[in-house]
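Hey team,

Sharing the TonB C-terminal domain-containing protein run so nobody has to redo it. Sequence (174 residues) first:
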Amino acid sequence: NLYSLNKVEPMPAYLVFESPKVSSKKTIKKQIIEPKVDETLITTPIIKTADTRKELEAVKVEKDLLIKEIFNADTKSSVEKISYYSNIIRNQVIMNWKQPSSAKEGMSAEILITLVPTGEVIQIKLTKSSGNQAFDNSALNAVQKVSKFEDLDMGRKLFDNNFRRFSLIFNPDY
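Structure output:
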């Protein structure tokens, strides 16, 4: 009799040792792949906004100085400037000129134009008639339609000497 109430005897115990369970879960390692940056391609430095504004202003000032230098170079350059602005005026008038059918080769009308520095026409006067009323009126109307010449950004001295008052000759040979 293995177990008795009267006797206190040690009870048999069986110890069972289990090995710890190895988790069957696989450990997944996440690899973070960082893009490789070729440092030779990136050569642009970081520019602060304040520096950009200063650089932009410096470039603008330099550009303005170059333009002034070009336009104030010498007398030959002055002739070129007069020619340049004369062509601007001529082209704007021609775009608005509708020659009458009665216009004949050899006719010409001379018109005196007075401008302000902004390019606005303040006075138009026929100084030499072609002898044909329709031709003269078409020339006057062409200048009136322009009313303000665009792109006449020139120095005050050049304007006063050459473009404040000037004559424009119209002839059908154009």
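The chain has a mean pLDDT of 78.

Ping me if you want the raw files.
A.
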